[in-house]
Design brief:
Oligomer: single chain
Shape: flat
Radius of gyration: 28 Å
Largest sheet: none
Number of strands: 0
Structural class: mainly alpha
Number of helices: 14
Order of helices and strands: HHHHHHHHHHHHHH
Distance between the termini: 60 Å
Strand content: under 5%
């Protein structure tokens, strides 16, 4: 009898502990979702403010007490912003620089990563370590030396060459792709060499298809970098024919008195930001897969 009572008490205690664990788990889960919700609001609020500001009149935007929804929605701000900033020309310039720099950068990255991953030559590890060491140098120092080289020595100022060439090599992309190439079994390379396959053919037929997620992520990140760049184009170009989107938006909406038409400027920023949002929305899985990928499927 005492044994049955003991078993009953143990079962009740176990049920009580289980109920407590469920309650604590529910509170923890609620806390996590509440924290994530607050963080999401903090991140999304600037974008919300950009959209509503782009739909206001200048008078409403300059009111002492801000409004969180426009009284009179101004859709024409987007049309006026597109025409005022000459966004068509800016889009074409940025797209040209982005596409050309991405293609050339991919070629350099693939060949360099392949050399460090598969080829054997004297000083390979030392050279690769030296490349990685350059990642520790602040980017501002490269900006200064690149400016002196490109503008003063090569005289490439006010040209697409100055916007494209200095940033074709990315040590981070080379490192990322090399690590991905190293995950491909070396036996495939040795078997290909026995069959008489050239290095370029093996790279194109075997390694590139297997590393495609990483290459896609590099392509996306490179295009986004070209789309968002600001400091370098501002330094090397003064001719409006070579302006990129970020630079063209800076002074396009400022009148002679120095007052900026913020609603139209916000509308232009929303137009420019839309392609990046769409790229991330539809291709985010490729970005995550390429950056986090540490092996290959077998």
């Amino acid at each position: 009898m005492a044994k049955n009572e003991l078993n009953t008490m143990s079962a009740k205690n176990l049920q009580h502990v289980t109920a407590q664990q469920r309650i604590l788990g529910a509170f923890a889960k609620t806390g996590v979702y509440l924290f994530l919700g607050v963080m999401a609001l903090i991140v999304l609020f600037p974008f919300y403010w950009m959209i509503i500001s782009s739909l206001k009149t200048t008078t409403e935007y300059r009111q002492a007490i801000p409004t969180f929804w426009p009284h009179d929605i101004q859709w024409m701000n987007y049309v006026n912003a597109f025409n005022t900033a000459n966004l068509g020309k800016l889009f074409l310039n940025t797209l040209y620089v982005g596409v050309v720099s991405t293609i050339l950068s991919l070629i350099i990255t693939v060949l360099t990563a392949f050399a460090f991953a598969r080829l054997e030559f004297k000083g390979k590890e030392t050279l690769f370590a030296a490349l990685l060491a350059t990642m520790m140098i602040p980017g501002e120092l490269f900006t200064i030396t690149n400016y002196i080289t490109v503008v003063n020595w090569l005289e490439w100022g006010n040209s697409f060459t100055a916007l494209i060439v200095p940033f074709l090599v990315s040590v981070f992309y080379i490192y990322l792709l090399r690590q991905n190439f190293l995950q491909i079994p070396n036996e495939l390379y040795l078997a290909a060499k026995v069959d008489g396959t050239s290095d370029i053919k093996y790279l194109w037929k075997v390694m590139v298809p297997l590393a495609l997620p990483t290459l896609i992520s590099i392509t996306i990140l490179k295009m986004m970098g070209a789309w968002n760049t600001y400091i370098w184009p501002k330094l090397v170009t003064t001719d409006k024919n070579f302006e990129l989107i970020t630079n063209g938006l800076r002074n396009a909406f400022t009148d002679t008195s120095g007052q900026a038409d913020i609603p139209k400027q916000m509308a232009a920023v929303a137009i420019v930001s839309a392609p990046l949002f769409l790229v991330f929305l539809f291709l985010r899985k490729y970005i995550m897969a390429g950056v986090s990928r540490s092996g290959i499927k077998g």
